[in-house]
Amino acid sequence: MTSRDQLSWFQIVRLGLVQSALGAVVVLTTSTINRVMVVELAVAATIPGALVALHYAVQILRPRLGHGSDSGGRRTPWIIGGMAVLALGGVGSAAATALMASHHYAGLALAVLAFIAVGIGVGAAGTSLLTLLAVQVAPERRAPAATILWTMMIASFVLTTVTAGHYLDPFSLPRLISVTASVASLAFVVTVIALAGIERSPAQRPAIPNVAGTTQNQVRFSAALATIWSEERTRRFTIFVFASMLAYSAQDLILEPFAGKVFGMTPGASTQLTGVQHGGVLGGMLLVALVGGSARGRRLISLRGWTLGGCHASALALASLTAAAVVGPLWPLRVSVFLLGFANGAFTIAAIGAMMSLAGEGRERSEGMRMGLWGAAQALAFGAGGFLGTAAVDLGTWLLGSASAAYAWVFALDACLFLIAAQAAAKVIRPDFTRAPVARGTAEYMLGGTPQ
Questions:
Q1: What CATH class does 1-200 carry?
Q2: Sites in the chain below the pLDDT cut of 50
């Protein structure tokens, strides 16, 4: 990849706008509509919970969607197409919520279709967006680029919820549909404008033949998936992504209840505690971007170091929460929660940077499929993590007869998951990922070799 083909900082920010647009539609679907179903319509909380889990489950299609973008040689149509499906799913979920008020089962059926569309849209757009970054961002810019995208997405969460909340009052179901449609339409328009002219022509990326002489365009999905899964590095990184994201999501839904039950915090205080955690996440992301974006910083700490260090620090922070569950209100809970967020933010950005580096390795030019495989692992982990974390607390309370002991048990298990993730990462992430670009078009790739 020549310097002319690499994305500039301005172009990376433009892709951050795409990530922000994606996040704006998702946060309305999984947060606002969730609340309306439970509070305004008095629907059992299990129903929106199952719908959110469904949108994660559908993302098991990410490898297939990534393979489609590999075969076509361009990512932009898949991002725009995915955003269109996501926008339709978002509007459909709002319409389904309104329909449930008068025709419960018809609305529920429409909601199932809408959340399936949301999952497919997120999978298609998100996978191809990260793949585009992996292909066209210089190695030394990957961690800062990931920070830019995720910081802009978090900002879009805040901006969307505040703005949409303003226009939703006084609340009505037609107003819900109108506001959701406006956000979805704006997100689609921003995506189209932000992507204009960014992706270089497919002619600049000639297909690399494999051993049999066929190009990536001619490889069937099943054969391509078998080839990708046969790569040891890809398999190990998939295990790392699943284990780390499972640990990340398992503590997410139990932190506020833990603060309320064990520390006696009010709903307002526990919400502020979540803000402390998110502040830590942002701080960890910015630190990796600032240090990893400088040549001196990359000499001191590689993406491998940030990833392993972030996982170990997350395990230590969870161990401190285990102690907090045992000690009780005397423990400095806010410090532990901030450190957990900081460590999570650092390892997340470093892992995404490593993911972009690993995506281009292997026998075939299959960046999209690798990104899809890891995206599917992340989605499944997030879908399972929230349920397993809450279920483990309930089970622990029943077995141990104490909520404090149950939370201590779950936090300790989460810490162990992060240590398992670190062990998996240590075996697959090279120390030099940010120091030299992966060679393209070399004899090793032409002959079908797998870099080790």
A1: mainly alpha
A2: 1, 203-218, 434-452
